[in-house]
Amino acid sequence: MATPTKKKKQPKINTYRWAGINRKGKKSSGEIKGTSNLEVKALLRKQGVTTTKVVKKSEPLMTLGSGNKVLAVDIAVVTRQIATMLIAGVPLVQSFKIVADGHEKPAMRELLTEINAEIQAGVPVADALRPHRKYFDSLYVDLVAAGEQSGSLDNVYDRIAMYLEKTEALKSKIKKAMFYPAAVVAVAFGVTLLLLLFVVPQFEEIFASFGAELPAFTQFILGISRAVQEYWWIIVGGLIAAIWLFKRAHFNSLKVRDKTDLFLLKIPVIGPILHKSSVARFSRTLATTFNAGVPLLEGLNSAAGASGNALYRDAILDAKEEVESGLMLNLAMRTTNVFPELLLQMIMIGEESGSIDDMLNKVASIYEMEVDDAVDGLTTLIEPMLMVVIGTLVGGLIIGMYLPIFEIGKII
């Protein structure tokens, strides 16, 4: 029995600055990609350049806000570009090279160039993507593998691109629903803090010259102002520490993430949007895996991870166990008491007609539209509510400060 050979690690591709003499005898310089000085000199020699200097270009420091971080939306855009070229008949290796050379982010260029080098060496696309799980998850790699096996990589890439575009659009809507009220509340908190730190103390100095007892509401606000002036650093520091600790616990602990997911589902207005979002993501993911020829059980595993919420993840995995025991998918999902009736009915129709991927895509479109409408409705609803909250906070402070002045005016 032959022992498996260990795959050699591909050399890292770097950017080199060069200077030399071209065919016409003139000095020239530029940049070129390669794995070593020797390779770069050989490439330039083929172009008729006699090199006088070849220096590896130093990599820029990765600083916050550098714009070099590879985001999920970048992967979606790149996937669409590759899909378009594959459908147009451009070879896979050339497609990766064109996209890599034309991308504005150095990190993405390096990632695609490294993957392309693996493909050029004869490694299957799925295996070339697999080491980069940070950017290409299990679902992405499994779909590509299914496309390679079936000989329809162009169609599979098109489906992946469509899936990622829909998913990113849905994520954007959810972030919009969550970010807007959080931003307004943060601004209201900041304004209130500034008033208590800088404005209220000015009124307190004026009130000290009155020589009369202040109204209870005014005394209450002055007490809060003194506490904030004395302990503001503890309040701000405690808030920052609490946010940092929560983010760390959320990143490191599955239990914390699960409890957060369940809590968010219970928030009025926000909860129903997250429910619909999870159903849409589950339906879209399972439809994509079905369409690509991925087995049902593997598709359910991918859909569980892509649902984006612990409640739905656990329900999908429970349904998967029932399917393994021989139960039909719609019946297995019904036993969880989590999924909406519309989804269950559409899956039942799909199973009976043999078009379950079409039914799931229709369900996904319906719930994505409902999420879009709900986010727009939430924005419309929450604006006046937040204005009332801000008005109450700021207006309460102003009234508390002017009450003593009004009372003095009545006495005079």
Taking all Cα atoms into account, the compactness measure Rg is 30 Å
Largest sheet: 3 strands, antiparallel
Q: How many helical stretches?
A: 15
Structural class: mainly alpha
Q: Could you state the oligomeric state of the chains shown?
A: single chain
What global shape is seen? flat
What is the topology, as strand order, of the major beta sheet? 2-1-3
Instruction: Determine the strand fraction and express it as a percent band.
Output: 5-15%
Structural description of this entry:
With 412 residues, this protein is mainly alpha-helical. Helices cover 72% and strands 6% of the residues. The chain contains 15 helices and three strands. A three-stranded antiparallel sheet has the order 2-1-3, with helices on one face. The protein starts with 13 loop residues before the first strand and ends with a helix.
A few lines on this structure:
Helix content is 72%, strand content 6%.
Which helices and strands, and how do they pair?
Elements: E1 14-21, E2 27-34, H1 37-46, E3 50-56, H2 72-87, H3 92-102, H4 106-120, H5 125-129, H6 138-150, H7 153-208, H8 216-252, H9 254-265, H10 270-291, H11 296-306, H12 310-324, H13 329-334, H14 341-353, H15 356-411
Antiparallel strand pairs: 1-2, 1-3
Helix pairs in contact: 2-3, 2-7, 3-4, 6-7, 7-8, 7-10, 7-15, 8-9, 8-15, 10-11, 10-15, 11-12, 14-15
